[in-house]
Amino acid sequence: MPSIETISPDMPLFARTGINLASAGLGASAISTSNEFFAPLERMLADPPAIFIPEKFDDHGKWMDGWETQRRRDGGHDWGIIKLAAPGRVLGFDVDTSHFTGNYAPACRIEAAHVPAGQLPDADTSWVTILGHKALGASAHHYFACQSYELWTHLRLHIYPDGGVARLRVYGVPELDPTGDGQDIDLVAALNGGRILGFSDAHYGDFNRLLAPGRGLNMGDGWETRRRREPGYDWMVLALGARGHIHKAVVDTCHFKGNFPDRCSIQAADLSQFGDGLTDALITDSMFWKELLPQQRLTADAIHSFTDELAEDFGAATHVRFNIYPDGGVSRLRLFGRPA
């Protein structure tokens, strides 16, 4: 199965550097909707790109990979409320109508709310428009920047008047959850703001799942490179969710049995003075970062924890380079430490 998505230079910067807060795989969920006759709202939050199966029908008609409402005849419009995977600040959206041609939603609007933990939006919830009315087209990605800088937990997507949306991606920055004073957190976890900036190859699986919570569900739930037929090794450059001191590294090869890497290593750097620096220069520079974890052997379908193997007195880091030798698959990477 080919890589489900690449970091394309044609995507807006917010889509290349933000975390998809509407990812079902990270914990986003559908709360309620005005209508989901043809396809449920929750399907719009799926991580893989939408697919189209010409011969697939169900009891309601044509099966569509996304959210689709019935045809309205009353002059109103449809809406759906979703809970974000984590409270966060929204940078922008991708309202994706892939495969919706004669049945796509012609326009949309997005509202946001901040609801206390453990509660659901109700009649008293205050909604704020963070994306005004925008026109949508058939079977296309629609990228819209967001100028709201507040912290949100829920979104309400309005479509006018009805129709379908294949995927809603909400790119943003999760609120860092320190889990308690003085406690180590996973500094590279997507839900703590960790993000992937570049890689040598991601031919198989879903590379974004490398930073997801939990263990891999199958061999496609993680980062896997093609078989290397030339000298060298594969690598990935990542930004931590916060500048911090890394005390433990965990490399999980769950479900990777005949295709796990032989070895791995980690380099790190403190680039707090230079910002995110999502450039070719950053990738080149990463080859010369200091070694945090020397090369370590990996085994099949196992959790590997490294603590004593980490370089002593390394100092704080903002970015890491994760190297695998010579190629293969890794389900999850965890880098536990304390924000500096």
Polypeptide structure, described:
GO terms for molecular function: allantoicase activity. This is Probable allantoicase. Residues 27-173, 193-339 form the Allantoicase domain. InterPro entries: Allantoicase, Allantoicase_dom, Galactose-bd-like_sf. This protein has 340 residues and is mainly beta. The chain folds into 2 domains: 13-174, Jelly Rolls; 185-339, Galactose-binding domain-like (Jelly Rolls), CATH 2.60.120. The protein has helices at 13-17, 280-286; strands at residues 19-20, 29-33, 57-58, 61-62, 67-68, 78-96, 107-113, 128-135, 141-145, 152-160, 164-165, 167-174, 185-186, 195-199, 204-205, 223-224, 234-252, 263-269, 290-297, 303-306, 317-325, 329-330, 332-339. Strands 1, 2, 6, 7, 8, 9, 10 and 12 form an 8-stranded antiparallel beta sheet that branches. Strands 13, 14, 17, 18, 19, 20, 21 and 23 form an 8-stranded antiparallel beta sheet that branches. The chain is globular. The relative contact order is 0.16. The model is unreliable at 1-6 (pLDDT under 50).
